[in-house]
């Protein structure tokens, strides 16, 4: 959904952006233009030839935000309905435009980040200090450039550093229930036009409830060579080791769903450990200086070693099932060519190839395949302000073919108004969890977006209609009232209608107000989906800002409210969502207090979240953290 805080809209405080001294963005002052090439700023982007009909979150846009994970960055920049599981590291996600996470595609440098068995990606795995921009695509753009993206496509563009002297950055965070995290970055140009970047990350938490612990390690490195001012090539290695205690939430008949002592979790001993290795070679070149032609490619290898241990009654009737471990290597190649014809027509065409091997497990069948996708995206500029965009995608999986198509009319006066009318259709790709007799799920999405900026007021509006045909729904299998597996089935068609509005304004030069609200209505009589979203969900933020020289202080509060809803519960061992006949009543979900300060190159942040320790959840029955103090520090400097 539209959010005015995104990076392609100027933020409310232009002074903050002008004086912000993120040292990693220093280019010109540290190089001799006669001998050194500038990094291609669009390297790793979804678009090498300029395209303005999408949203971008820049690394500077959340500098004052007290975040710990990439999911938290997105949660505050894309207004959506959060699907949080009560602790860091879990499969925390969100619902966008009436769709659940299976319709969100997450990419890095334009290639898909995904687990093969469910085509989803846990955003908690991605290091939040390792991207330059997050590009957010919706509707026609999303379903053209990626599979299973009827809700959204998210593209993490690799970080860009360019400095002749050593650059270092540290990030540290601490919060309740033993949560502590650290991140460190080192970067330097080690040779002419060659930059080396290294980073590490750790994040640990005991969790509020039984068996909700987290251990997360990340190491990454990047080597980028600037072939010319118009061409770059980079090699990225990213390693993640993430372990979780998956308690599955509370039993529905627990005395109190947020009682740490008396409530009973579903799985006391269900742990998981994921080792993920990724190698990515990315090449980008603008073939003509007028940016009328460009080419990009990605060659990558990824391997997931995923293990479940101590599965307490989690597969069959035996008390302890044997540990499950599976290794899923995948190889891929992405190619894309872009060209502009007479400054009127822009074409983007390409192909995605993916080879993988997934072994048979207790939860899904063996699958070995070579998937092939081809896509075409075009923009016709009707006038300086009006344009028409059209996109198509075809994907082949074994003997199955899947099609997506869409189009949108866009208006932009390049000053204060952007609007679009978007219509798209897509077929959900098959995953190993699906049985062969299932019908293809199809999503039809109508989006109306508008945003305007009349200083000091900025507003956005979004209206959507989603029709879901032959929807695939997961139903649980029980053993002694415990969910031991789920199976997919087609249910009756249903639709979701929703709207959102957001505004930001400034009062008396130092007070800032932000409001976001949305409504989602499911048109169905089926109990499994009828009330999966609240009719109303929103939040309000107000803060005071004091600026002295280049130092900035923000002090404020945030309040969130949700009307009653049922939602879908999350099953951790195969990452599916199932219906539970439980309803959360109308309530204030949280009241937060926060303080953020910029002192030189350091950002110091403190927040007390859920001030009155309200009992609530977004995914039944995974209660949110109660009142908790969170501290973090972000500091960049030269040695």
Q: Mind explaining what this structure looks like?
A:
The protein has helices at residues 14-19, 70-77, 139-145; strands at 55-58, 81-83, 93-95, 104-108, 111-113, 131-137, 152-158, 167-175, 179-191, 194-205, 214-228, 231-245, 271-286, 293-309, 311-312, 320-321, 324-341, 345-358, 367-381, 386-397, 400-412, 417-427, 442-454, 457-469, 472-479, 482-490, 494-507, 511-523, 537-548, 551-562, 568-571, 576-579, 587-599, 602-609, 628-638. It contains three helices and 35 strands. The chain is mainly beta and 639 residues long. The protein is globular, with a radius of gyration of 24 Å. 47% of the residues are buried. It is 3% helix and 55% strand. The strands form six sheets. The chain has a 22-stranded antiparallel β-barrel. A five-stranded mixed β-sheet has the order 1-6-7-4-5.
């Amino acid at each position: 959904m539209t959010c005015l805080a995104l990076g392609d809209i100027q933020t409310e405080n232009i002074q903050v952006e002008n004086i912000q001294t993120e040292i990693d963005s220093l280019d010109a002052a540290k190089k001799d233009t006669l001998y050194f090439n500038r990094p291609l700023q669009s390297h790793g982007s979804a678009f090498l030839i300029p395209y303005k009909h999408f949203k971008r979150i820049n690394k500077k846009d959340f500098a004052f935000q007290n975040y710990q994970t990439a999911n938290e960055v997105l949660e505050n920049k894309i207004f959506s309905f959060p699907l949080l599981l009560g602790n860091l590291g879990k499969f925390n996600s969100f619902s966008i435009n009436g769709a659940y996470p299976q319709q969100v595609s997450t990419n890095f440098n334009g290639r898909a980040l995904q687990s093969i068995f469910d085509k989803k990606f846990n955003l908690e795995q991605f290091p939040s200090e390792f991207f330059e921009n997050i590009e957010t695509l919706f509707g026609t753009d999303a379903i053209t450039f990626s599979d299973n993206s009827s809700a959204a496509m998210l593209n993490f563009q690799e970080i860009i550093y360019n400095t002749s002297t050593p650059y270092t950055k540290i990030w540290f965070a601490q919060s309740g229930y033993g949560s502590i995290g650290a991140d460190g970055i080192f970067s330097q140009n080690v040779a002419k036009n060659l930059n080396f970047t290294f980073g590490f990350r750790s994040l640990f938490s005991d969790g509020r409830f039984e068996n909700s612990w987290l251990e997360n390690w990340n190491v990454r490195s990047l080597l980028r060579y600037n072939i010319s001012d118009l061409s770059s090539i980079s090699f990225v290695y990213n390693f993640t080791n993430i372990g979780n205690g998956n308690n599955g939430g509370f039993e529905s008949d627990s005395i109190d769903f947020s009682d740490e002592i008396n409530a009973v979790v579903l799985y006391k001993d269900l742990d998981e450990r994921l080792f993920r290795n990724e190698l990515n070679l990315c090449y980008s070149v603008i073939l003509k200086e007028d940016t009328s032609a460009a080419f990009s490619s990605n060659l990558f290898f990824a391997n997931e070693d995923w293990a479940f241990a101590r599965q307490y009654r989690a597969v069959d009737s035996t008390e302890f099932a044997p540990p499950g471990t599976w290794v899923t290597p995948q190889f891929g190649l992405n190619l894309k060519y872009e060209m502009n014809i007479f400054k009127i027509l822009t074409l983007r065409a390409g192909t995605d190839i993916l080879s993988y091997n997934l072994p048979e497990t207790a939860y899904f069948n063996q699958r070995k395949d070579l998937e092939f996708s081809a896509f075409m995206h075009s923009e016709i500029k009707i006038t300086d302000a009006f344009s028409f965009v059209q996109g198509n995608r075809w994907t082949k999986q074994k003997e199955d073919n899947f099609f997506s198509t869409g189009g949108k009319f866009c208006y932009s006066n390049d000053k204060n108004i952007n609007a679009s009318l978007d219509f798209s259709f897509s077929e959900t790709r098959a995953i190993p969890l699906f049985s062969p007799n299932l019908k293809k799920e199809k999503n039809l999405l109508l989006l109306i977006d508008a945003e305007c900026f009349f200083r000091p007021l900025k507003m956005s509006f979004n209206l959507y209609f989603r029709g879901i045909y032959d929807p695939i729904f997961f139903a649980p299998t029980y053993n002694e009232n415990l969910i031991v597996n789920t199976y997919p089935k087609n249910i009756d068609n249903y639709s979701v209608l929703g709207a959102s509005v957001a505004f930001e304004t400034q009062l008396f030069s130092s007070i800032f107000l932000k409001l976001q609200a949305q409504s989602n209505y499911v048109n169905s009589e089926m109990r499994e989906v009828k009330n999966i979203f609240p009719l109303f969900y929103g939040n309000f933020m107000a803060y005071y800002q004091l600026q002295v020289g280049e130092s900035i202080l923000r002090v404020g509060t945030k309040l969130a409210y949700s009307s009653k809803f049922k939602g879908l519960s999350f099953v951790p061992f195969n990452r599916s969502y199932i219906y539970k006949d439980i309803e959360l009543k109308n309530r204030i979900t949280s009241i937060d207090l926060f303080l953020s300060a910029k002192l030189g190159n350091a950002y110091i942040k403190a927040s007390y979240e859920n001030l009155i320790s309200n009992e609530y959840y977004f995914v039944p029955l995974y209660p949110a953290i109660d009142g908790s103090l969170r501290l973090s520090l972000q500091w960049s400097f030269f040695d």
